[in-house]
Design a protein that fits this description.
about 290 residues, alpha+beta, three-stranded antiparallel β-sheet, about 20% strand
């Protein structure tokens, strides 16, 4: 039964102005606003498991990078500069996940899923949808109570579609570190077992005549070193270690070179191999829609 409303005795109180918290780190800690650094995943066993938000693009990055657009060197162009792109043919494969960034927006589904593009920013994510690989979901912290503009990303390395896109062993930590290795153009794989909250990496990437300089700094305190509450914890944890190591990579991105004209489509020639993967992915999308 719904309780009866009490009679009004006067005009409602005016809404409080949103409180801006310190942005000393280039983002607001979601937990300060009742949020979480774990996503909300539907249908887990046991219920209530989530996936770690383990990468943040800091609000101290150039504002142009933080714009959720492909044009003018924006966020999507930045993703493409380190080998990731939007989903195959614009078709979302898989279920949504939600995150509460503590900004007053509550739980929202991801802005988009971004996948490893196997060297082709236009259609290569079709191959990732079938073969698996590195991918991430992202959300923008832009609610009235914590409007930093920072980008929060949940990165992981997934298995092929034939294995239901489950996460590989140690796939949350590896997904984060391989992304950091790509975004900072490391010549060798980042040694995940040796990463600490003092680790930093830096380097440059380019796409569509924009060049980005990225510094990645690992921080602790936002996530726990744990398997508790982590989706796929039974299979992701390795050698007696926890499913996640509790570290978050914070990226600060600066545009160091721009084209003469800032408007670009980012289109590149399409290979025969890519077309083949596209056809396979299209067949997959159709099959999923029929199930």
């Amino acid at each position: 039964m719904v309780a009866a409303r009490s009679p009004l005795t006067g005009p409602p109180a005016p809404a409080l102005l949103p409180h801006k918290r310190s942005t000393n780190y280039g983002y607001y800690n979601p937990m300060d606003g009742g949020g979480s650094m774990l996503t909300q995943v539907q249908g887990t066993y046991p219920p209530g498991l989530g996936e770690p938000i383990n990468v943040i693009i800091s609000a101290y990055s150039d504002s142009q990078v933080l714009q959720n657009t492909l044009a003018n060197g924006g966020l999507i162009n930045y993703f493409q500069s380190f080998g990731f792109s939007t989903e195959c043919l614009g078709q979302h494969a898989g279920s949504d996940q939600a995150a509460d960034l503590g900004d007053g927006n509550g739980y929202l589904n991801e802005t988009a899923v971004i996948r490893w593009d196997y060297g082709d920013a236009n259609l290569g994510t079709c191959q990732e949808s079938v073969e698996g690989g590195n991918h991430f979901r992202y959300w923008i912290q832009n609610g009235q109570s914590a409007d930093s503009g920072a980008i929060f990303m949940a990165s992981s390395y997934e298995m092929p579609i034939a294995e239901q896109h489950n996460i590989v062993v140690n796939g949350y930590n590896l997904g984060r570190d391989w992304l950091v290795g790509n975004v900072t153009s490391q010549s060798t794989i980042i040694p995940t077992a040796n990463v600490t909250n003092t680790s930093t990496y830096s380097g440059q990437t380019s796409f569509s005549n924009f060049t980005y300089a990225t510094t990645a700094t690992y921080v602790s305190g936002l996530l726990q070193n744990t398997s508790d509450g982590i989706n796929h914890y039974q299979t992701v944890a390795v050698n007696g270690l926890n499913a996640i190591d509790g570290l978050v990579a914070v990226l600060t991105v600066k545009i160091v070179q721009k084209p003469g004209s800032s408007s670009t489509s980012g289109w590149v020639p399409i290979s025969v191999t890519t077309l083949l993967w596209t056809l396979i992915a299209m067949a997959y999308v159709i099959l999923v829609s029929l199930l």
